[in-house]
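Troubleshooting entry. Yesterday's outputs looked truncated, so today I'm pasting the complete records for two proteins to confirm everything comes through intact. If either block looks cut off, that's the bug. Protein one:
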Amino acid sequence: MKILAVATDNFEFYYEIVKELKQRDIAFVSLSPTDPIPPNVDLVITTSKEAEGIEFENVIGIEEDIRKGVRKALSILKGKQTYQKMLVGIDPGTQPGIALIGDGKILETMHADSPEDVRKKVEGFIEDYSFRRMTVRIGHGDKTNRNRTITSLKGLAVRIEIVNEEDTTKLTEAPDIEAAKKIALSSGDLAKGTYDVEATEGEMREMQRRSRIKSGDITISKKLAKKVVEGDLEMDEAINEQKEEED
């Protein structure tokens, strides 16, 4: 089994790198840069400055982007400098579930902060991984958030498919992540043309309900709720606007 070592005396760096590794359930050993490297270690992660003093064949010195460094390290550990086929599965929602699969293996799972934030996540995959081709697959449910997600991805050099996501949800702690995994592995129809985003009455009522919960006593107007649902306004902004109108 290939082992990763984190060798650093920089507490702040150690904290951030360990947090990133634990989120991915990646086993590692902790070392000081002056410690001898155990024979079962295949790769060392450290800061760029500390890397200069570590005599080992495979050392990755990370400047600032922790996530990018970890992605590079995991690709090396998996022996995959370049993936032939990258699949991104997205379970649409207000905070979409995302699964990244490279050549049949799950590389990462995460949540986006919003449908529009999915673009940033996919751009990160494109920048940090080497691959031949990438397909982004989005579940067909939750039409409004699905269309917001597709719209956000316009201009990226990836194939976008819409997948029938029936029977993808499981009774787990993170059903949207499980759904995203299944969506990634399911063929879909090519997304073509323009996908309009139009809030439904039910979605606007739900957003008004959420505004009361978040603010404690303020219900945003239907007009503001529509903007929030369609991604033109953040909830905090809508609540503030409602406050100003009522004052």
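Protein two, checking that the full record survives here as well:
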Amino acid sequence: MNGIIIRSLGGSYTVEVPEGVYECAARGIFRKKGISPVCGDKVEISFEKDGAAVIDKIYDRRSFIVRPPLANLDVLVLVSSTVDPKPNTLIIDKFTAIAVYKGIRPVIVFTKIDKTQAGELVSIYKSVGFDVYEIDNTTGEGSEELAAALSGKLCAFTGNTGVGKSSLLNNIFPGIDLATGETSKKLGRGRHTTRHVELFKLPGGGYVADTPGFSSFDTNRYDIIFKDKLSGCFPEIDELTGKCRFPDCAHIRAKGCAVLEAVEQGTVPRSRYESYVQMFEEASKLKEWEYKNE
């Protein structure tokens, strides 16, 4: 039978198949090959003579995030409040870059619009091709549109403490019943460890990943983007590739740089470019050999 791993803990995997939900062990062949099943994996299971369920096959992954381990994520929802705390564009840009790098669709949500409008930020992120939603958690305004966009998808939410992730989830997915303060009654958030991920089935189809790892802004936990790959993670910069004076242009203070010209002309948002520069400088300090076995 084919299914999806919805929970992984201590070498035991909960797999949902059309016929039901089974606790499974993984075949030893995976360990020999250095492969670990993770939440979100599409798998094939069978049953031993004693009735024990085992995972026989792990299908190819569309996407994979290292920490917390999660496969086949379709959408990463980046939640930012308009005030208390105020938006941090560097954090938003780091997560959109990670999502693009991993082949995951980033969706940006601004909450607390009843207090302050997101204003120019909405225009900035829409201009570079990202889906942006403004939601009032007190009235639910905008929730239906986001719920429709996530229907049938495997999604995860990230955002700083206090931006209203739990209220947002309760608005768009009433059946999920997350308590405020980021505590899940149904999923038992207190049981989590860093490497524990669980998928919660959504009423309209699809899943939301319940993991504390997505509340952390240590983006290196998700994956490492080295400097030579960074420009490809900013769509508005990537589309200018090849238009610079020098073919190996890093888009950092170089003469004849098409990106710098676009920033001055206003076609590349300055805040996005400043994030790119800071991320490039951080990436320049990384040594690839240190992360080879990550």
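Both blocks look complete. Sanity check on protein two: The domain at 2-60 is CATH 2.40.50.140 (OB fold (Dihydrolipoamide Acetyltransferase, E2P)).
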